[in-house]
Amino acid sequence: MLKLAWKYMRYYKSQTVTIFVSILLTASLLSGISSLIYSSQKNDLVNSKTICGDWHYYIETEKDLYDFVESGEQAEGYHLEQCGKMEIRDVVAEEFLICFIHSDETYRKMTHRDLIEGTFPQKENEIAADGFVLNNLGFSGNIGDSLRIGEQEYIVTGVLKSEWAASSSEMEVFVSDSFVGRGSQTFLYLRFNENEKLYKQLNSFLQRHKISLDAVVVNDEVTQYLGGEAPQSIYEIVKFGLTNEEGNLTYIVLKLQSDYNLAYNGMLILLCLFSLFVVYSVFNISVSKRMSEYGILQTLGISEKQIGGTLLLELWILFLTGYPLGCFLGNGILSLIYDKFSGVFSGKGIAAENGLSVADQTLAEGTNAVQFFVSVDAMIFGFLFLLISLAVVALVVVRVIQKQSLKDVMSGDTSFTKRRKIYTLRNANMANVVVRKFMFANKKKVLGILLSLSIGGSIFLCTTYMVENLKVHTELSLMSDDGLGSEYRISLKSDSLEDTIPEKVVDKIKSMPETTDVYPTKYSMGELQLTKNEFLADENWKDYFKYQNQELYFIQRYNSICNQQEDETYRIKYDVYGYDEEMIKQLQEFILEGEIQSEELLKENKVIVTANMDGQGNYYFYGKKPGDTITLRVPKTENYTDELLKFQSSEENYIEKEFEIAAIVKRPLAQEKGFLNAEVWNNAQSIIMTNEQMADDFGIVNYSFINASSNKGMESERVSNQLLQIIRDVPKAVFQDYTYAIDTQKNYLKQQQIFFSSIAVILLIISLFHIMNSMNHTILARRREYGIIRAIGITDSGFYKMILQTGIWYGLLADLFIFLLYNLVLRRIMNYYMAHVLQFLHLTSNVPNMVLIAIMLLNVAIAILAVMFPARKMIKENIINEIRG
Amino acid sequence: MSILKLQNVEKIYGEKENQVKALRKIDLQVEEGEFVAVVGTSGSGKSTLLNLIGGLDNPTQGKIFIKNREVGSLSRKELTIFRRRNIGFVFQNYSLMPVLNVYDNVALPLTFDKGKHINRKYIEELLRELGIWEKRKKYPNELSGGQQQRVAIARALANKPAILLADEPTGNLDSATTVEVMGLLKASCKKYRQTIIMVTHNEAIAQTCDRVIHIEDGCIVTGNRRFPAKGGDGIC
């Protein structure tokens, strides 16, 4: 059998090369992309550890346990590699909320609070903190100088690295062990062995130390990559998704993503299937060419099993050589260019879930160098999958041979629909008739060819569609999260509405020749009142605020987010923003319903509201439409205290107004980063009006934050210094420079576009390669018939015209197929995926017409080219040989 | 008047040590309306001769004249058109288009001549004479071997060619159908004053023709003839 397989491989050289190349290309694509996703996830993990800390869980414990547990603890079921200890000794709530922390070195390592300058505190009155904290506390001196916090004077002994995922209003100051505060809260930060399931180790740890699971806080951003929580079974997930009222496809996708790393495993399976499809298709063509030979072998007494064995050996020999080479090629190329495409999967343009804005996240990630990791798992999985699948392919081919009688196998395909129509009676162009008859003789076959013709084009269009929308989404996210994608942001490190940026500061910044696009925003917190019927307009949304309501931060500061009153009405805390005209205009991009005209807002006192969005990208605003009214309460500026934000004081402290809704939007543009956008919550529910309305309706004159950009050609550092000068006298004002972050994000986006388009092009090339092969076979399968036509008198040019027609037909039909497949099926799936799974903000970007036309033309061109090659080959052949076959 | 003339025709396949001389120095003349049988053993060169006459292959040496035109001097396109208009082929394996029905198979060569009117009456007459009019909407694989060969003959005659070349037209047929097909060919030859050159290895069938040419090892050899030759054969 081995000898026969080898002989076949040598005799059908071009077919052997075709199968080998298809295995090589698909293997390199499969292993390359898998490694890429794997690398990006590994790098994401590193980034997440940088931002959120290199720990898995923390537990607030009793002092005894705090002292007892040590790094390296090992018991049945777990290995606690590191245990960081942190104790809050005191808290001062003055200008800022300041925590006095004593910690061990492990904790500082875990949270990346390395010492940049100086030493750690040794004495009771010594402190160390990061630059951001020290600056905002007004410390401008040198190490060894004193700083007043509350009633006490402290000596600053060291400067630490800033933490990235800092709480919006808390500041940490490190103290020595000899520091005695007013209390003690002890926390253990746990880091288990990452090679084992974390949730299992945690359970064993908790059992051993008799700790309740409720006391555990998970570092989600880190553990999501390491199996931090017990996964639900796939059966249960699918069952819930399909049978439960709350479940749907999105639930299944998102749950599979969180529990089973769908992005990686799903892509791996898809690539395996694509590889199998291409290899099967190429191999099938190769086998169909020698079907009659297998028939002859059977007549000579060779069993079907032996034929199957020969086929399998042939496939496996090619696979065993092509696959490793392909993996080497794919990983090799990607490892060389990976650092140039580091932003493809990182730079969380899609969803930042750690409370950091896109820009902050970018700044944090910028500190880590990207590395390329080879996904050995994926290579092994792909190898085993294809090895077994190829055995199935051989089996399928044998079954096809089995189904056909020996005579059929030796004489080829005669099954086609026989229409009793005489074409020559109607002066029909017989060349056309013959072409059509050849093409559609076997509908199943033609459908298969068209499907394979359109698969590459469809993938390319889908990728382009996704990239186009990703581009818009990233731009909009940046606008929404960081205020119009502005380079500079001036805000207040405060959670009190008392702190504001005076109007004159805004005017100063606006008048600076170095700045442009200065967007000042007013902010207040409000409470929306809804009747029970309004709030429960859709029962599915009744628990929308459930988790926010459970958040201690919201309970303590704002008496929860959504409260049902005794009279059964609901009161919900809302961010209330005042935008200027230009910003209002830019909200157009985010509209779900209604119209936005800033003059009308002002004239008719209308507002814009943001819809609530669930985890699956569905939007809801209590069943209200533009034109409906809402009642909003905002604390008065006179006699303001932070207590008013609980909205429990007497009515006289609040201004209540009724507004008509002008439009419902997906997100606000520029957002306050404290207040309701705190902890893990972002894009909080908001009501937007003009700055004038804020002043007229609620008496709010000053601003809460400002976004600005530098004029072209201006030196960034100079602009930064000038802005810092201007805000120097504004209490609690902080300045953030996002120039680097914006550039990096733009670069990431460019990388993503280039990368995804390149992958699509590679898929297209593999597909085109496959098309050429299929078409070549389709034409050559009819060489006897074409020989007859030539013998009975068709000229060479007439013959070429016939073949050309075939190519054009295939090309146009494939175009039609792609068009229908893309528009009726794939685009809808993509829309659903982008809206509900990726939760893109904007889905209106289409594939550019030029790309669409180019794909259509390319298809026709490739189909023509693919048929012309065999046609030339046939023309060169002797007619008699062609007829004899 | 001779319609076909071969002068010193040679056909060699392969090169150097693999060379095979399929035909050697053939001189042959065929008169208009003659029904010639070419007989020989397998591999003797008879089919090669037929293919050279039909312009499906080119001689290595020598000249072939059909209706006084030298075939070798024609361009590929001219040759194709010349063949279409003057030569009809009947192959042993029928060589019908499996995707076309009987009528369309027969009319197909006519459609290659742009602007040429398809004489439907003539095709009907042909099909009726060949006894396949009732089968005109059937597809080749729905017909018996004899019926398929009749279709092939009808297709070869559809253009009213001056020469009909038949390569073992009865090779796949039973004896009764063989007699029928031979009768049809003869009738056609007579009716349309066509020249027929038929390759066969069946001596008995050959003997029913006007002239029998024996080929052995690529040469025309003399032998017993029942009928006097109208033209002249070059003898090896």
Question: How is this structure best described in words?
Answer:
The complex is a heterodimer of chains A (885) and B (236). By secondary structure, chain A is α+β, with helices and mostly antiparallel strands. Helices cover 51% and strands 17% of the residues of chain A. In chain A, strand 14 and strand 15 form a beta hairpin. In chain A, helix 16 crosses helix 28 and helix 28 (796-837) runs antiparallel to helix 29 (849-876). The radius of gyration of chain A is 34 Å and the shape is elongated. With 236 residues, chain B is an alpha/beta fold. Chain B has a domain at 2-98 and 161-220: 3-Layer(aba) Sandwich (Rossmann fold), CATH 3.40.50. In chain B, 31% of the residues lie in helices and 26% in strands. In chain B, helix 6 (175-191) links the parallel strand 7 (163-167) and strand 8 (195-200). The longest helix of chain B is centred in the C-terminal third of the chain and has 17 residues, at 175-191. Chain B is globular. Chain B starts with a strand and ends in a 15-residue tail after the last strand. The relative contact order of chain B is 0.21.
